[in-house]
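Re: the request from the purification team.
They wanted to know what the chain is likely to look like in 3D before they choose a buffer screen. I agreed to run a prediction and write the result into the notebook, where they can find it.
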Amino acid sequence: MEQKPESYWKKKLTPSQFKVLREANTEMPGTGNLLHNKETGIYTCAGCGSELFSSATKFDSGSGWPSFYDALENNIELHEDTSEGMQRIEVRCRTCGGHLGHLFDDGPLPSGQRYCINSAALQFKQTIDPSPLKKKRAGLSSRKKRRS
């Protein structure tokens, strides 16, 4: 994982990206610029550019945040999150450690999972052919306990 000082991230990211990626805040539902994006392509980390999700796995969950039923292999980490009196699974970028959102077990088939991701944590890279995007699932096997 990239270890960069806070000053680096404050210069590189917009204020809303910094709050989400580096301070693990959540954007208001329904406000993200990628929520209604229907283009074909890859969703990358706004912090480091790592490829995270394919548009082929994006769906409208009605939650107010971009939702995906699968992630691209090896580019995310899952951590137990007990903040705010809840027990959830936090999704982080494996490359830069940026907070992306949370994973829930209420998504559609084939995975039954919903990666609920902040738009501020993502950038979108349009592609013509989504077939190379069908990589092996990240899955829960990469879950790690969050250190406080």
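For the purification team: The CA atoms of residues 74 and 138 lie 6 Å apart.
Please add any questions underneath this entry.
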